[in-house]
Amino acid sequence: MNDTQLNTCQWIGENFRPSCTCKVIPGKSYCKDHVWLVYKEGTAQRKRKKDILMVDKVRLVEELMNEAIAELEAEGFDVYGTRELDLFK
């Protein structure tokens, strides 16, 4: 890849070749007209990152709940309510 390729938009046009010769936005591989098409909200990569963050949050909550349950059980609390379940028979 030469310096010209690094400084010009890498938008893939017809025939799967870069088809835009505009200057890139600093830090991106695309010009101002194409960058928002590539990085628009809702893209698969952005959604994947969002999903990973949500999974991490759910796992943290699950871990905290398990710790709380272990503490309550250690104190003798009937966490799962087996005694209370007898009321519904």
For the structure shown, list the relevant keywords.
89 residues, mainly alpha, 2 domains, 49% helix
Distance between the termini: 74 Å
Give me the secondary-structure category.
Answer: mainly alpha
Mean pLDDT: 79
| SSE string, helices as H and strands as E | HHHH
* SS elements, strand count: 0
- Unreliable stretches (pLDDT < 50, length at least 5) are none
The total of helices stands at 4
Major beta sheet summary: none
**Percentage of residues in DSSP E strands:** under 5%
* Rg calculated over all Cα atoms: 27 Å
Bulk shape: rod-shaped
The portion of residues assigned to helices is: 40-55%
Number of domains: 2
Description:
There is one protein chain. With 89 residues, this protein is mainly alpha-helical. It folds into 2 domains: 1-40, no CATH class; 41-89. The protein is 49% helix and 0% strand. The protein contains 4 helices and no strands. The chain is rod-shaped and about 70 Å long. The model has no long low-confidence stretch (mean pLDDT 79).
